[in-house]
Write a structure and sequence with these properties.
Elements lengths: L11 H6 L10 E8 L5 E3 L7 E3 L4 H10 L4 E7 L16 H13 L4 E6 L13 E2 L2 E2 L1 H18 L3 E4 L6 H11 L6 E8 L6 H7 L19 H12 L4 E5 L5 H10 L4 E5 L1 H12 L5 H15 L3 E4 L2 H9 L5
The chain binds ligand PBG.
Length: about 325
């Protein structure tokens, strides 16, 4: 027999040497939830192992994460007050603005801070924009999104990540950032964000479920792939620096396509429901949590992602450090 594929699997050395996908903890981003207030560290029921922190305690999470070799964070805010227009989202003393300032003051460039730019955690109705007779008004919302992004950049965010799915928001945000001299503040757009049932635990955690209706008039229909390319290329042309696909696991084909068709780095967001499924099945002793976590993380990179946002970021980094993956 001239061809014996098993020779390349003979022992760990040869397997290690010939891995086709290399994974690094430098490509991982950990989401953190910041709650308005002081001295808060309380568990998030829907995201086991995760906590709410207030701006003054978040350094505990940052320190612990840095120990695992992950230094990139995606921040979500929970304000105390919500209103029709999500005023707290662009307030310079809002929870995220405060947290970013405090983190940056303490860690400077040791950490890379990304902020979620959206309104659903801040609006009384829970939609990702400004309502006009129950419909999210695209162009009106853009004015607010640019203000949110600017306030994050002014607080010191390295990168803003608009997750609202309004048309034209990348261009609007880029223009506003440049006008205010934030030319090196990056934009990672949630370019391809599907209307997904996988966001359930996040909406619990962020208290951001819409109070009526759904998000289908702005987030994408999961039957569509052409549309994903359209969205990705639009954001690329509007000046996005990184394109994100979300969720990840049921959308590996989309990650693959977006990474091939654009010339930007592709990020994948392995969302709350993906994390919760693994946690729940492991609790029932149906799967090995560690093994499934490693396998799914690698599969997302294999599909073409360059960056992974995951609630398992620390644990994935640990598995890389141990040499189990990567
Ligand atoms: C805000 C936002 C959502 C997520 C990230 N940013 C929720 C949503 O669109 O309903 C979900 C993340 C997750 O499920 O982990 N628009």
């Amino acid at each position: 027999m001239l061809q014996r594929p098993r020779r390349l699997r003979f022992n760990q050395h040869i397997r290690d040497m010939t891995r086709e996908v290399r994974v690094s903890s430098k490509s991982l981003i950990l989401p953190i939830f910041i709650m308005e207030g002081e001295n808060i560290k309380s568990p998030i029921d829907s995201l086991e192992g995760h906590f709410y922190y207030s701006p003054d305690t978040v350094f505990e999470a940052v320190d612990d994460t840095l120990k695992h070799g992950v230094n990139k964070f995606l921040l979500f805010g929970l304000p105390t007050e919500k209103d029709e227009i999500g005023s707290q989202s662009f307030d310079e003393n809002g929870v995220i603005q405060k947290a970013v300032r405090m983190i940056k003051e303490r860690y400077r460039d040791e950490v890379f801070i990304i902020t979620d730019v959206c309104m659903c955690e801040y609006t009384s109705h829970g939609h990702c924009g400004i309502l006009d007779h129950g419909y999210v008004d695209n162009d009106k919302t853009l004015e607010y999104l640019t203000q949110i992004a600017l306030s994050h950049a002014a607080a010191g965010a390295d990168m803003v990540a608009p997750s609202d799915m309004m048309d034209g928001r990348v261009a609007a945000i880029r223009q506003a950032l440049d006008k205010h001299k934030f030319i090196n503040t990056l934009i990672m757009s949630y370019a391809v964000k599907y209307s997904s049932s996988f966001y359930g635990p996040f909406r619990e955690a962020a208290k951001s479920a819409p109070s009526f209706g759904d998000r289908k008039s702005y987030q994408m229909d999961y039957h569509n792939k052409q549309e994903a390319i359209k969205e990705a290329l639009l954001d690329m042309n509007e000046g996005a620096d990184i394109l994100m696909v979300k969720p990840a696991l049921s959308y590996l084909d989309i990650i693959s396509e977006v990474s091939k068709q654009s010339n930007l780095p592709t990020a994948a967001y392995s969302v709350s429901g993906e994390y919760a499924m693994i946690k729940a099945a492991a609790k029932m002793n149906l799967i090995d949590e560690y093994g499934v976590m490693c396998e799914t993380a690698v599969s997302i990179f294999r599909a073409g992602a360059d960056i992974l946002i995951s609630y398992y970021a620390k644990e994935i980094a640990e598995s890389i450090n141990k040499g189990d993956i990567g």
